[in-house]
Amino acid sequence: MAVKVIIPTPLRPFAGKHDSAEFPAATVGEALGRLTDQFGALRKHLFTDDGKLRSFVNVYVNDEDIRYLAKENTPTKDGDVVSIIPSIAGGGQL
Amino acid sequence: MPESATLWISRELAERIRNHGAEAYPNECCGALFGRDNSAQSGLGSESDALLPAREVLGLYPLVNRRDDSPHNRFSVTPLDVREAERASQLHGLDVVGWYHSHPDHPARPSQYDRDHAWPWYSYIILTVQNGAPGEMTSWRLSDDRSEFAPEPLEIRQHAAA
Lengths: 94, 162
Description:
The complex is a heterodimer of chains A (94) and B (162). Chain A is α+β, with helices and mostly antiparallel strands and 94 residues long.
């Protein structure tokens, strides 16, 4: 068994059209690292240039937002589901 | 994205976006675009392929603008709203192919803020609403390398493709 990472629709073209991937991972950070190791084109859309998760990338472990857990240090275990869910934002100029 | 990729939307759905923009003015409206992306099916060689648009909007899912601190120039769709929109689209056998929002008293062109927060693959329809009157409607897509937020040809048709 492993951790299942759910890939959101707009990122599936960069992940071989897969809607999920499974990896052994002890933390959310490790799971996302394995995901971007396998699908390098995802990295730019998930992380800023200095390696932080983009603000509009939301990550949940079994429906809990990692911002309210231990962020990327949130532990994961076999069978957990890590979901990447977009926020959508925009607007006109000030 | 293919050079000739065009987003189709019916007059009726385009009018609903315009009405939503007018109702929300002076604030920004926002919502999900339900539809189908046919780009993977192109090149199979049948005559009917020539009639399929690259992507078509077949439904709308108006949403509440969660930016109540600055709704006149910002919109926000939370991840819970995104998930709800996706579930609703699947009930109709469709996908969320993008999002629409309005620019009150600002052109239907993406701002730097739009660009910085965009996701690839999605179509982003922007509607200008000037003094309460809906005007130009455009569509945009972020390039795969995030370097460009390019215009996407938008065709408003009498009827939906399917």
